[in-house]
């Protein structure tokens, strides 16, 4: 199984100059290739692929104003074109939006394949660098493993990270256990378990909100393209990095614990992209990072031999009574506890939803039943009205 080990490193002044130049060249080549492909399509309805952009790169290196492209390793430049090709492939397949131009203020990254780095005595030597990267080895790579690809990343906060991709030879399957759990995600409580346990939401953004707000107001007052604006932007980026680190650290600890304690984990399939369109809940939902929570559960379950089950997002887990199965017509978000009008059972909204999610997850696992709620067909047909029509090209 392929894995990536991420470490922080502190480059020397010489290494930082070379790496910054390399990342800048990767960004330039990516943006030029994206502009060329966009122009070719809108002007000539012609698709440009990776082979053609690679030939363009060869011609760009011959231009007098782009001679600095020859001063860095050619491998990250080619990898940048491959990443652009992947972005267009995902766009045409409907999996992603149209590729965006890279911004200098957003940091950047450069990917090195085996021909552009050397692995010797547990140290990484990149192309054009005479000294090994001063990596802070927080954990060692598995014995006998050598990286196949190395990615160097510069964050907007100024921190440097390196990711080493390896082929993990060890089997990390955990011993089988008999427990299963259903998860109901929320804002006040990040996760409610079917066992009745509620895990609080750390709300990392709210803890640093006032400090971040003050820094962003200071940034907005600085003159553009000034040194003071760069300092203020760096201060904002460092606060945002601190928020992100706290959020990711809490999610890693939580998901690791759930994977170790349970054989089967059941969650609801959510569309966070649509949820954040609500302006009143967008910030709270983004701070909870439900999508990242499910993503970590997915790959950790794959690593350790666990089962992750996703149930349909339209299943009425909160409105359904876990005792008799009665479904309420309405259940506003401000109602956290309710009594079933059919059997009289008192329910905690989140715990009841987690128990229903677990029960439906067992049904899906055992017999693959469709748990999408029944829909009532409309008696009359609605007539669609077109707000606008496609205009014919003028002759």
UniProtKB/TrEMBL annotation:
* Probable transposase IS891/IS1136/IS1341 domain: residues covered: 166-278
Q: Where is this region: Disordered?
A: 376-395
- The protein's superkingdom reads Bacteria
Task: Locate the compositionally biased regions of type Basic residues.
Answer: 381-395
Q: Which residues form the Transposase putative helix-turn-helix domain?
A: 1-45
What are the UniProt keywords, alphabetically? DNA recombination, DNA-binding, Metal-binding, Transposition, Zinc
InterPro entries in the record: Cas12f1-like_TNB, RNA-guided_DNA_endo/Transpos, Transposase, Transposase_put_HTH
Q: In its keyword annotation, does this UniProt entry include Manganese?
A: no
Domain Cas12f1-like TNB, first and last residues per copy: 290-357
Q: Does the keyword ATP-binding apply?
A: no
Taken from the record, one Pfam family name reads: HTH_OrfB_IS605
Q: Which family does the entry's similarity section mention?
A: In the N-terminal section; belongs to the transposase 2 family.
Q: What is this protein called?
A: IS200/IS605 family element transposase accessory protein TnpB
Protein species of origin: Anabaena azotica FACHB-119
Q: Which gene encodes it?
A: tnpB
